[in-house]
Amino acid sequence: QVQLVESGGGLVQAGGSLRLSCAASGSGFSISTMGWYRQAPGKQRELVAGITSGGSSNYADSVKGRFTISRDNAKNTVYLQMNSLKPEDTAVYYCNAQIRRFSYWDDYWGQGTQVTVSS
Question: Which residues contact 31 (CB under 8 A, 6 or more apart)?
Answer without folding.
Answer: 24, 53, 73, 76, 97, 98, 99, 100
